[in-house]
Design brief:
Blueprint (H helix, E strand, L loop, with lengths): L1 H34 L7 H15 L1 H6 L8 H5 L2 H35 L13 H27 L9 H6 L2
Length: about 170
């Protein structure tokens, strides 16, 4: 199961990276088309779709690598059961919020499909297509938070020595 979950998070990160390459291509195409005096419709809209998709698809991988911003002032003052209790509460709240986000992003994509909602931009893209990346990213983030909650519950979450993790993330 661990290998499957890690492959899921890594696959989403690779897909996010491909979206970033696509974003670069759309921006470059927009620049070149303006310089060459021709117009490629939809480059701005597709750049936006790709940027949003990349952001959502990278969330779970970022979480699992410990790169999300955390306020550790309270946690650094606590020890033992109190610290573990706060961690479990925070992860439970995160699972709840990620679940809401996943549910409503899937509902949005589904409703966009049912109502044939299209982009108001000149590309007229059916909106459910770019919304799939947001829904998938939110679903994978939900899985990652459940994974973190289970690991914390079992006492298997990786721990960093005090201050070391914080020092690694400061630039």
């Amino acid at each position: 199961m661990r290998r499957f979950l890690d492959a899921l998070y890594d696959g989403a990160a690779w897909l996010a990276a491909l979206f970033m390459v696509g974003l670069l291509a759309m921006v470059l195409l927009g620049i070149v088309s303006r310089l060459a005096h021709f117009h490629v419709p939809g480059t701005d809209a597709y750049a936006g779709y790709l940027m949003a998709g990349a952001g959502f698809l990278a969330l779970a991988h970022t979480l699992k690598r410990g790169e999300h911003i955390r306020v550790t002032l309270l946690l650094s003052a606590l020890r033992g059961g109190a610290k573990r209790g706060i961690e479990l509460w925070a992860l439970g709240a995160a699972v709840f919020l990620a679940g809401l986000s996943a549910f409503y992003s899937c509902k949005l994509a589904w409703q966009s499909r049912i109502f044939n909602d299209i982009s108001t931009s000149n590309d007229a893209t059916p909106l459910w297509i770019p919304q799939l990346a947001m829904a998938a990213g939110n679903l994978i983030l939900l899985v990652a938070f459940i994974d973190e909650l289970v690991l914390e519950w079992r006492g298997q979450r990786p721990r960093h020595p005090e201050g070391e993790a914080e020092a690694l993330h400061n630039e």
